[in-house]
Every structure is written in C-alpha cells, then in structure tokens.
Amino acid sequence: MNEEQKRAAYWKANLRLVGLCLVVWFVVSFLFGIILVEQLNAISLGGYKLGFWFAQQGSIYVFVALIFFYAYRMNKLDKKFELDED
Amino acid sequence: MELQTLTYIVVGATFALYIGIAIWTKASSTKEFYVAGGHIHPIANGMATAADWMSAASFISMAGLIAFLGYDASVYLMGWTGGYVLLALLLAPYLRKFGKFTVPEFIGDRYYSKFARFIAVICLIIASITYVIGQMKGVGVAFGRFLEVDFEMGVAVGMGIVFVYAVFGGMKGITYTQIAQYCVLIFAYTVPAVFIALNLTGNPIPQIGLGGTMSDGSGMALLDKLDQIVTELGFAAFTQQKGTSLNMFLLTLSLMIGTAGLPHVIMRFFTVPKVSDARISAGWALVFIAILYTTAPAVGAMARLNLMNTIQTGEVGTADGNLVYAERPEWFKNWETTGLLKFEDKNGDGRIQYYDDSNAAFSEKASSYGWTGNEMVKVDRDIMVLANPEIARLPNWVIALVAAGGLAAALSTAAGLLLAISSAVSHDLLKGMIAPDISEKKELLASRFAMAGAILVAGYLGMNPPGFAAQVVALAFGLAASSLFPALMMGIFDKRMNRAGAIAGMLTGVTSTVMYIVWFKGWFFLPETAFAANTPENWFMGISTEAFGAVGALLNFAVAIIVSRLTAEPPEEVQRLVDDIRVPKGAGAATAH
Which of B89, B579, B582 minimises the CB distance to A70? Predict the structure, then answer.
C-alpha cells in the first residue's frame, strides 16, 4: 500500500467503526429509552422498569463505554496503518 | 456552629483556593491564554470539561426537573450526555488535529471564507452570552439564599472571582480552577445524595438505591412507592410518559447535537497534547459528568418522595392525613421566606393539601374530602437540590457544602463561556479580520481586555436580566445545533462540501430555528409579538421550540449538500486540509498559524 491507499483504507475503517458506535448510541437512547420504552417497562430490573432504567441510567453508562471503546479501537487503527502521531 | 458562619467559611475557603490557583497560573503567551499551552493531561482536561459543562442548571435545576417531570426529564439526561458521544466520534479529534485556537477559525479556513467565519462568531457570541446570563443569575441566587447577601452584591463578588483567574490566567487559569471546582461540586452533590439514599433504601449508592426497595418495612420498590403516592393525589405517575414520543425524540436529538456544537466545550479539546488524547479525554469528561447525571435521577425521585411524605403524613382523604401548617418543619419556613415555596389555606382547615387540582377526576374526589384546591400554590423546582439536605435533616456542614457546590458549578461554566466569547473577539474578529498584522503581545493584551469586557457585560446582564433570560437556553442549543454542528461535521466528513454550501446551510439552519422560536415566543421573547400562542396544538407536528434545533440542523445538512453539489468543488489546498485532519499523523501542538 502506498501512503494514499493507506489513508483511504484507514478512513474507511474509521467510518465503519463510527457507524457501528452510532448504531449502539441510537439503540440505547432513542430506541430503548424513548420508542420502545413502554414495551421494555414490562420487564423489571430490580426496582427499575427496564425502559425507564435505560432512559435515566443505562444509556449514560453505555455512552461512557462507547467512547472508551472507540478511543481504544482507534488507537489500534492508528498503529496498524502507521498513521499515529509519533 | 451556626449555618451562616459555616457557609461563609466553606465558600470563603473555596474562593481562596480559586484565587490561589490564579496566582500560580498566569498566561504569558496567546497559546497559554487560548489553549493552556496545549499540554493538559487528558484526564485533567476531562475533569475541567465536566465542570465547564455542568452549569448552575445541571447542579441546581436538573434534579428539580426530574422530581416534577419524572420520566419525561430523561430527555435532559440523555441529551446532555449523548452529545459527548457525537463530540468524541465526529468532532473533537479532528478539530484537535486542525490545531488552531477557536471554532470559528476552523470554519473560516475550511470554507475559505471570512463571511462563514463571521457567521460562526455571531452564533458563538449569541449562544454563549445567553448561557452566561443564567450562570450569573445562579451565582446571585446562591449568594442570596445561603449568605444573605444582596443579589447584585452576589453577582459582583462572583464576577470579581472570575475576573482574577480568567483575565490573568486565560485558559490556563480557567483549566486549573475548573478542576478544583469539579471536585467541590461533585462532592457537594453526591454527599447529600448518599445520605438520602441510605435513609430511604438502606443503600448508600444512589444509583442502586433508586432501583431498590423502601427501608420503611413496606417492601415496596422505591419507584413503585413514588408512583403510588403521586397518583393517589391526582398527579401523573413518576415513571409514566406525559409528552409525545416525537417531541421527546427531537428534543433529545437537539440537546445532543447542541451539546456537541457548543464552542466552549469544543475548545477544551484544543488543550490536550495529541489527537488520541482528545478522543480519550472526551471519555473521561463523560465519566465525570455521568457521576452527577446518574445521581440526579435518584436525587429528584427521592426529593419528591420526601416532599410528598412530609405533607401527606397519613392516608389520603382522612381527617388527620395532612400536615398541620403550624407544625411545618424548619426548612419549610426557611424557603417560604424566599418566596420559592408558598402555602395558601384555601379551605381554612389549618392543614396542607398538596394535590393536582388540574386533574378533573381527582378534583371531584378531593372536594368530597373537603379540599377546595391545591394549597401549595408555589413549589419552585430549584428548591429540590438546595433544600434537600435540610429536608433529609443532614448536618449544617452539608448545607454549606451545597452552597459552595452551586457556586462552583456556576462559576466554572461562566469562565468557560467567557473565554469562548473573548477569544472569538480577540482572535477571530480582531486578529482574523480587523488587524491581521497585530503582534502576539498586543493580541494577548487585547484578549485580556476582551475577557474583562465580556465579564462586565455578563455581570450587567446578570444583574439586569432581560425578561427572557430563562427561555434563552433553547436559543443557545438551537443555534449550536442548527448552525455550528452541521458546518463542523460536514467540514470533516464531506470533502466535497464547499463555501457556498456551508454558508447556505448555516443561514438556513439558523434562520429556520430562530424563526420557529420567534413565531411562538415573539421578537426578543416578547410574547405580544408572537405570531401564534406557544401551545402544543399550534406547534408544527407537535414539536416544541426547544426541540426544533434538530429540525434546523436537518435543513442545514440538506441545503448545504444540495447547494455544494451544484457549485464548484472546494480548492485543492482545502481538500488537502481535509485529508490532513482525518489522520492523526503529523499533529503538532495547537498553533496560531
């Protein structure tokens, strides 16, 4: 691979990863927390109804995990394509 | 020790700390003033970002919103945290790689247009000024209630403190004080929450206690108990949805993209050494934010439960089921004197009835009990956090801590916003447009003057808040969501995006959002100039003005893409710039040129 192909492949891999993360981001908040909240509320998680839990607790935990996951995977991509900073 | 003395000591100690930091961190170059020299550790930056982001609204108002809106307040919880995912994945690392000082600077360079940069500056200044008024008000209120100082005096003291560390230290001073302020505010927020959770559920972790069972021996889950108590008094169930799903969806989305597009937050990511640091730093920021944001639902629900239990002492409808007004607790009296809590004995029985009298079915039942209307004529939402320690009978030092925490939250956000404003003035307007040849030394001096000026304007507006101050937060998020976020994102992800497309998109986004707000709230928020009443029946597809930012952003994207495809592609060097910001390789520290 020459430099240009490397950059293109890196960008493609990045877009795929961003897309995957955004799907999860959408599912835990908009889907579980808002659209499907009533259906999920039929299930309970301790004293929480599940839909309510996703809306006020779960989505936030997943957001945190998502960013760290993305940062970890991107560091690997940077190295793999030799495009990291130093 | 007496509460007021104790509060003076605690608040005084935190202020001394902030000033100590200011003396230790003086900015000696524009790079230090704008981006703290560019070598803040990602965890430290995460902490500073959390304080920068969590305002008086997050600290004081959010739990109150949750207490009274219940499930529907989830939009704020998801919206104000989910934005960080967008920031980390779509903006922060690339803007860090770009390596300049301000957000409008990126827009100007990427779209090779001073006009585009100018639009960005205007959006930035309006969004930040409206936001900062709320912080100044928060400072005044906190001083007024806890230190019994005049509102104006409180604002003036707050301004003075910010002045010391922001004018001399710039971003460098602000960063280190924000770290200290984060520690103060998170301690102040979680300590009462832990005590209250322990009290009600026997579990010290609020996030688990909220899903736990009541320790009163009833064996009921706390949330079920709360649902039961409020519905017995005619209120909507806490965990039940009240608004429409479409509006909740769009409001959440607007708050998310607004959060990601707010310049004072984005700027914080210019201070870390590397692109990879910008990514991980956003994660740390969200960790520190999540500590407060996952505690807030517990604080809100438990405060509501405590409030209801205090007033409705026995079975609903029984003769002695309601609190006798003369026997009301001390905190009740304290907050009555502030006017934030108001009681009116409508049926003259000397007892307090607190129920939803707008609920027709329940009102009928209520009149059979001899109740003639809701007697808690005012329960200000903001009390929920401020009075929480008193309601739960926590020691005085906890109350003093809450005062210091509220002030830390307001001051840290105000400082971040003021830096965004002053750097837009000195770097984008002065250096970028009016006097490009100005020396660094002069620019640094100009940035200090711009900061001092911004503080005076913010202080003046805080003391004389325009009537619309409370409503303008919608405007701040709407502007950031509909103009800045799409322009920034397309600048990175759409190489074909050009000057004509970006400008047309930004103008469309801003105009549509502002027009929608004006249509229902009037010019300058004067209701008599509105074109239609601000009620759900009038809203376009039931979308509230607060939720319209997402629609504005969508219009921005659509118009920008169409226009850019019909006009010439951006010049060679701009396309190279896009290629360059997409990879971390070759990133230096943030530079002026």
Answer: B89
Nearest to A60 among B77, B252, B276 (CB): B77
**A–B CB contacts, 8 A cutoff, strictly below:** 138
Nearest Cβ partner for B584 among A25, A53, A84: A84
DSSP, collapsed to helix, strand or coil, labels residue B491 as: helix
Question: Radius of gyration over alpha carbons of chain A, in Å?
Answer: 18
Burial class of residue B232, CB neighbours in 10 A (0-12, 13-18, 19+): middle
Residue with the bigger pLDDT between B527 and B42: it is B42
Complete DSSP assignment for B137-190: HHHHHHHHHHT---HHHHHHHHHHHHHHHHHHHHHHHHHHHHHHHHHHHHHHHH
Interface test with B, best of A4, A20, A85 (most B CBs within 10 A): A85
Is this complex's ipTM strictly greater than 0.95?
yes
Tell me the shortest Cα–Cα distance from B490 to chain A, in angstroms. 14
DSSP B376: E
Tell me which amino acid residue A40 is: L
Cβ neighbors of B167 (< 8 A, separation 6 or more) are B448, B451, B452, B455
**Mean pLDDT across the stretch B236-242?**
92
User: Taking CA atoms, what residue in B is nearest to A36?
Assistant: B245
Residue B575 has pLDDT above 90, yes or no: yes
Looking at per-residue confidence, does B536 or B271 come out higher? B271
- Rounded to the nearest 5 degrees, what angle is found at the Cα of B226, between the Cα atoms of B221 and B232? 125
For tokens 């039929």, the residue is A42
CA distance B299 to B382: 12
Whether the predicted model's global pTM rises above the 0.95 cut: no
Q: What is the H or E stretch that residue A48 is in?
A: strand A48-49
